[in-house]
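Lab channel / #folding
Pinned by the channel admin:
"Please post every new chain as: sequence first, then the structure tokens as a reply. Keep commentary short and put observations after the output so the thread stays searchable."

First post following the new format, from NK:
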Amino acid sequence: MRLIAGLERPEAGQILLSGHALDEDTATAWRCRIGWMPQAPHFLNRSLRHNIGFGDPVRPEVLRAAHLDALLAGLPKGDLTLLGERGAGLSGGEARRVTLARAMHGAPQMILADEPTADLDARTAAAISNGLMGFARAGGTLVIATHDRDLAARMDSVIRLDRSRGAAP
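Reply from TO:
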């Protein structure tokens, strides 16, 4: 996922995007077109607004898609509530929904999501999955790494990586 996002370079070979190499000259433009949802949420010691939109107002449709409406309504200062670097006051599911909103904020063409439903209860996992699928229904492309069979079953295409077929561990 980090290679596709242009955050790391391959040890050998190259990443091609529509026939063009993803390299130092093209990575910045590519990253502007993707949303990144890492497995472990990370926050800035700033407001919820800054953690989603880097200071720009967050579009209401992004908050709805990430199922953050109720959370926002319950915060003392709304989207100006300070989160802190560890996302103080957020549950794991709320933190994951904030990262989904961040990934969707810039109206990307593609979202790369690394284990977006890992360690979540079924209800929260469904909310995250529904937000991602809504993005896809609106014309976005999803690339998801997951062990969540329910989420994988909703994808148009699945590539299974399985080491149990005689490959070295």
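NK: The CA atoms of residues 10 and 18 lie 17 Å apart.
TO: also worth noting, Residues 33-153 form a domain with the Rossmann fold fold (CATH 3.40.50.300).
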